[in-house]
Structures are given as structure tokens and as C-alpha cells.
């Protein structure tokens, strides 16, 4: 009996030990998996840890009144009444190109249309803003709408100097370009390398092509005989193709010409944060098919009408239905200068605080929280230095092109946090010339800050003599595949400059009002 009891006690103990071992094993497996998840999250900023924008002390307002009188809300309401959408296409012809408008507007658009007066618009020269931007009264780092970042512009090391690499005399143009990238900009204002680099990408023979890994759409890495590279995005649609009415920003196809136009626009706005891009006509047979290999080669086929097509492999639009086709074997595309290799110019990827939800029904936090900017302002790197001003520049840039696809952005690690933000990936711009998407201006309208130099540049284009459309037309006219933009986009650019300035004015007015309130409170 006592032996039996002893046995069963032994058995139970052994079982307990096993159970404990299993539990410990399970716990360690969970710990490892959780750590891995966090590491991946930190690297890719997927949002699991929620550390980026909602710190423990963060104020998340659920059910914030959407009609609250913020600059952003009033602005959105005001511009909803602008019937720019009246010309927006609501149907497409067989070729998928735009047709002129034939009604089919939503009831609200129809109702609002009648609000429009037939009076010719008087040019508003924004003298109030010119006064601030040009005279710089009260322009400083800490307060006010118009600001400077207060950084030391004389401290401008380059990727070359920080890596202790001297540009070689017989170095390639791309290499020289990459080594000259500095803390403040991708290239200097009067860089002589830009035209050379563009010309090189557009004319050099193509030695080899491979598909670029990552991303949602098909891109090719073009290799030239001198071992330099370019990033190729193929043409998919004619210039006048507008974003399909039922497409979201994240299902919109990319436009190669938008990449070209965005480079010119970025340069004209004096940002110099976008890589140089040029158009080029390719022979699909000799310049892609014959120099491709492996996986890409396997995706080539001849379409029913005899065009040579390929679709590559990627996560969304890489199948027979979304193939890229020659006509019969010529193909247009954009060529972007290649960013430096990780060895000398590794980049850090940041989740954009004003990222959209990328979901057809969900809204992002910034769309619902009227105090969202004060949340962002508290979090590094947005709490000091130039970063927030850079994001506002970026939204100005994106609003002008209509690009709603700014999910992440990148900086060069080697320059630390106080460096410019790269302007990459503009394929989804220039899709809706008759619609002005004011939500893109959320960083500007919710934070009510803008860099003095950016405001000054916008005012110059607004008041002339050279308007932005004219400058863009001139700058892009030399591209091998010009004209780059469909005509209505030029009018959109000029119109949108005015809208941004109106937004800045609303901010200035609002801050003047609150200052008055504060002053009155004091007395
Ligand atoms: N000029 C360039 N040279 C080298 N790499 C680049 C260049 N432009 C972009 N990249 C890298 O390739 C990645 C994908 O490029 P891009 O964002 O243009 O394509 P995408 O298909 O739209 O990607 P996503 O689906 O992530 O938006 C970028 O995040 C960037 O890291
Ligand atoms: Mn993209």
C-alpha cells in the first residue's frame, strides 16, 4: 500500500516536473517570438508596439467632434465648396482615357455647384503673408506660424566626407553624385552633375536588368556598362488617364510621368530632396528581354495583338492582367538615379505620422483627433529641429501633385536626425487634376507651421512673374519623352499654390486671434 502511494506520488511528481518543463518551454518560446515581433516592429515600424505615436501619456481622443472649429476642419469645409470636381471624369472610354464630364455628380456636389459665382476671380497677392515671409518679423524657431529651423547651415558634411571617400577622377557620374549628397540636400542648387546624370541615364546602353525587390508594384533595376544603376518604372497609361473614380489611393496604379514631374517640382521648390528622374523610350526586346534573366525572363509573353509584354513578380500588380507591354516593342519609362548602397548611405525608414489607414473603411487617428499635432510635437524627432518643418514641406509638395500615398519616408542614417527627409516614390501623384485633396495638407493645417523659405517660394510662384506652371513647363520641356504632364495638371499646380497660401493665412489669422485672447486674458 505504502509502495503504491509512493509510486503514485513519484508519478505525480514526474508529471508535475514535465508539466513545468513544458510550461517553461512554452513561455520561453513565447518570449522569443514576442521579442522577435518587437525587433521586426522596431525595424519596420509596423505599429504593433504602438510606441511611435501613442506613448503611455498620449491623449487618444475617441469620438472627437469632427466639426470642431479647427483650422483643418474649417479649411476642409471651405474647400469642399469649390466645385473643382465638376470637370472630373465620371466615366472612361474604351481606351481607359478621360472623357469630358457628363454630370453624374453626387447630390452634394450638385448642390454646392450652385454656390459658385460667375464673377472673375480677383488675384489675391497675399500681401499679409509676403510681409511675414519677406520681412521675417517674428519669424523664429519657437513660435508663430512661419518658422525657421534654427539649424547651422554651415555644417553640411557629405556622404563622401563622412565615409572618408574622395571622389575618384575617373569615377562615374552617379558615384560623384552620391558622394556629394549632404546633410541638407541631395544635390547643391547649381549642381552641374544633374544634367550629366540625367543624360547618362537616358542615353547609355543597358547591360542588364533585374527586378527590384520590395514594394507593391513592378520596378526594374537598370544596370549600365559602367556598373551604375537606375530605377526604372514603366509607363502603364496614357498621360490623360485619371485615377479611376472607384480606386483608393492604395489601389491606384503608378504613373511613370508622375515620377519625372515630381523631380522637376521638387527642384523648382528648392527642396532638392528627390532623386533626378528622366524619361526614356526603350526597346522591350533588345533593352529588357535580351538583358534580363531568371525570374523576370519567365514572365515575358506575346499579347494577342503581338506586343511583347512582361509582368515580373511582386505583391500586387504583377500578373497577366497588369502586364507591361511594348507597342509593339517600344516602351516608355522613368529612370531615377540610384540611391547610394547601404555601405556608404544606409537609410532609416520612418512611419509617417500622417499616414492614411490603407483600409477602405477605417480612418487614421489624425483624421479623427483635432489635437493630433500636439501629440506628434511631443515625440522625437518631431519635438525639435527641422523634422516637423520637413514633413510640412513634404505635404505641400504632395498636395501640389495630389499624392496621397505617403506611408513612410526615409532619411540617411549617417547624418543623424537633423537632416532632410528624402522625397521618394511619387508614382501616385498627378492622378486627379480637377480635384484638390485638402486632407494632404493636414500636417500644415493641424500644426500651423511652415518653413519661411517654403512660404517665400510659394509666394513667388503665386505672384509671378514666373508662375509654377510656367516654370514646370520649361523645366520638363527638355525631357526626352516630353510633354510629361497632361495639360489640366498645370492649371491644378497654380490653383493649389493659392490654396496652400490660403491655408497658411488661416493659420496666421487663427494664431493672431488666440494671441489676442491671451493678451486680453492677461489684462
Ligand atoms: N532611386 C532609388 N534608388 C534606389 N532605391 C530606391 C530608389 N527609390 C526608391 N528606392 C527604394 O525602393 C523602395 C521602393 O520604391 P518605391 O517606394 O518607389 O516603390 P513602391 O513599389 O511604390 O513601394 P511601396 O509599395 O513600398 O510604396 C523604396 O522604399 C526605397 O527604399
Ligand atoms: Mn509606393
Automatic annotation (TrEMBL):
Keywords noted in UniProt: Disulfide bond, Glycoprotein, Golgi apparatus
Domain FAM20 C-terminal: 300-515
Domain of life, source organism: Eukaryota
Cited CDD domains: FAM20_C (cd10314)
Signal peptide: none
A Pfam family per the record: Fam20C
Ranges where the record places region Disordered: 86-118
Family per similarity comment: Belongs to the FAM20 family.
Name listed for the protein in its UniProt record: Extracellular serine/threonine protein CG31145
UniProt source species: Neodiprion lecontei (Redheaded pine sawfly)
Gene label: LOC107218408
Amino acid at each position: 500500500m505504502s509502495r503504491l502511494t509512493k509510486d503514485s506520488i513519484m508519478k505525480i511528481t514526474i508529471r508535475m516536473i514535465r508539466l513545468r518543463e513544458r510550461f517553461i518551454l512554452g513561455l520561453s518560446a513565447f518570449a522569443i517570438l514576442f521579442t522577435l515581433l518587437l525587433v521586426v516592429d522596431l525595424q519596420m515600424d509596423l505599429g504593433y508596439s504602438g510606441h511611435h505615436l501613442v506613448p503611455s501619456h498620449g491623449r487618444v481622443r475617441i469620438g472627437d467632434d469632427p466639426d470642431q472649429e479647427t483650422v483643418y476642419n474649417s479649411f476642409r469645409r471651405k474647400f469642399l465648396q469649390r466645385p473643382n470636381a465638376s470637370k472630373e471624369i465620371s466615366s472612361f472610354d474604351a481606351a481607359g482615357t478621360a472623357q469630358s464630364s457628363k454630370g453624374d455628380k453626387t447630390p452634394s456636389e450638385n448642390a454646392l455647384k450652385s454656390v459658385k459665382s460667375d464673377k472673375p476671380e480677383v488675384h489675391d497677392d497675399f500681401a499679409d503673408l509676403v510681409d511675414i515671409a519677406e520681412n521675417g518679423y517674428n519669424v523664429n524657431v519657437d513660435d508663430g506660424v512661419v518658422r525657421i529651423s534654427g539649424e547651422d547651415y554651415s555644417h553640411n558634411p557629405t556622404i563622401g566626407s563622412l565615409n572618408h571617400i574622395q571622389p575618384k577622377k575617373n569615377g562615374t557620374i552617379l558615384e560623384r553624385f552620391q558622394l556629394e549628397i549632404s546633410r541638407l540636400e541631395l544635390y547643391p542648387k547649381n549642381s552641374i552633375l544633374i544634367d550629366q546624370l540625367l543624360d547618362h541615364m537616358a542615353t547609355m546602353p543597358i547591360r542588364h536588368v533585374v527586378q527590384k525587390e520590395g514594394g507593391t508594384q513592378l520596378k526594374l533595376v537598370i544596370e549600365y556598362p559602367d556598373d551604375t544603376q537606375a530605377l526604372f518604372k514603366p509607363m502603364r497609361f496614357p498621360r490623360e488617364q485619371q485615377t479611376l473614380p472607384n480606386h483608393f489611393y492604395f489601389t491606384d496604379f503608378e504613373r511613370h510621368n508622375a515620377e519625372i514631374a515630381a523631380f522637376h517640382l521638387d527642384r523648382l521648390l528648392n527642396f532638392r530632396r528627390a532623386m533626378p528622374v528622366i524619361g526614356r523610350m526603350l526597346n522591350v526586346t533588345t533593352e529588357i528581354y535580351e538583358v534580363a534573366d531568371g525570374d523576370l525572363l519567365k514572365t515575358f509573353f506575346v499579347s494577342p495583338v503581338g506586343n511583347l509584354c512582361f509582368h515580373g513578380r511582386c505583391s500586387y500588380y504583377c500578373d497577366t492582367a497588369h502586364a507591361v507591354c511594348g507597342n509593339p516593342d517600344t516602351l516608355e519609362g522613368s529612370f531615377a538615379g540610384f540611391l547610394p548602397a547601404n555601405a556608404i548611405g544606409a537609410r532609416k525608414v520612418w512611419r509617417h505620422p500622417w499616414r492614411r489607414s490603407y483600409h477602405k473603411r477605417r480612418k487614421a487617428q489624425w483624421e479623427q483627433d483635432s489635437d493630433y499635432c500636439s501629440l506628434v510635437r511631443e515625440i522625437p524627432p518631431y519635438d525639435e529641429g527641422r523634422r516637423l518643418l520637413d514633413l510640412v514641406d513634404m505635404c505641400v509638395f504632395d498636395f501640389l501633385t495630389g499624392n496621397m500615398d505617403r506611408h513612410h519616408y526615409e532619411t540617411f542614417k549617417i547624418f543623424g536626425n537633423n537632416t532632410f527627409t528624402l522625397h521618394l516614390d511619387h508614382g501616385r501623384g498627378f492622378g486627379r487634376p480637377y480635384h484638390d485633396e485638402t486632407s494632404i495638407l493636414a500636417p500644415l493645417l493641424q500644426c500651423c507651421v511652415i518653413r519661411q523659405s517654403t512660404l517665400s517660394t510659394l509666394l513667388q510662384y503665386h505672384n509671378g512673374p514666373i508662375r509654377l506652371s510656367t516654370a514646370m513647363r520649361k523645366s520638363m520641356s527638355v525631357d526626352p519623352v516630353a510633354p510629361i504632364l497632361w495639360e489640366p495638371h498645370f492649371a491644378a499646380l497654380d490653383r493649389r499654390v493659392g490654396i496652400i497660401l490660403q491655408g497658411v493665412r488661416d493659420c496666421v489669422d487663427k494664431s493672431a486671434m488666440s494671441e489676442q485672447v491671451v493678451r486680453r486674458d492677461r489684462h
